[in-house]
Amino acid sequence: MCRTTNTPVVRRLAAAAVALGSCLALAGPAGSADAAPADPVPTVFFGDSYTANYGIAPWNQDGDRTLCFQAKENYPTVATRRLADKGITLDVQSDVSCGGALIHHFWNEQELLPGTGLKVPPQQDALKADTQLAVGSMGGNTLGFTRILKQCSAKLRSPEHALLPGQPVDGDEPAAKCREFFASGDGKQWLDDQFERVGWDLEEMLERIQYFSPDAKPVLVGYPRLVPEDTNKCLTPAPGQPELPLADIPQDALPFLDQIQKRLDDTMKKAVADAGADFVDLYAHTGSNTACDGVNRGIGGLLENSRIQIGDDQRLPWYAHPNEKGRDIQAERVTDKVEQALNR
Fold this sequence. Notes:
alpha/beta, Rossmann fold
């Protein structure tokens, strides 16, 4: 008997499959292997700028995908090497991770820079019937985390930071009062609506992975922690840096940002549990590698220069993305989770 679903798009796909005389299981079959596969594992990496590892150079400058800012040494690449060292070979069919991707860009094309006409296809197009592993990070952009950051930072609202997508949720509200804005009224309602959208879209995405690649093990990768428990750490610039790691975001808003990250983490965990997929909990393992942890930071400061250079002398800010240390933490945790998933 086919698994049924309440998702309209997937119901239509299932109906079409039945009409063709097939019954395509929408949930991956339970694994029975006792050891890692000896043959290469057909794999697709998907996701947003945290999978692409925006900010780390060099990056792939391949035609229309240049503005995805996908690092050549992103965590999928590093994790693939680490798995090979453990005797697990991934046959990477595609890495379609792209900066700025929302969850719905898994099934809709993505416009890379509004007004340019540059687009990339839906990420689900990379899935094949024989794909056995699908790994990536999605959710932060659908939540609107950059809009939340801009609501809390006057500096990020300036035109020079137009590369960071989105506008503040309410530009008439001063950045200094962002905590109060999100605590009640329209701000709270907006945030609640965003989290509901993230949950629905993650459910849709995970069902699509299991529809188009019924033998695939989906692995959703969470986000590293941005704000430390001790927010006093955020009042001192990192060594050699002129700006505070979280720029001009008020200190009383920092615990609120951390709560949002934790809520996003919990939302992703629920979607994964409901789908029977796997989750890489980076938030729980990066509390001492936040943007405010100085030499130990795994996150580049909001306005700290990244490794991406445009022209002869301009470098783009990290905008709170993993630096090389953070990338290596991502790769380590993904390696461990993929090994566990494939060994089941």
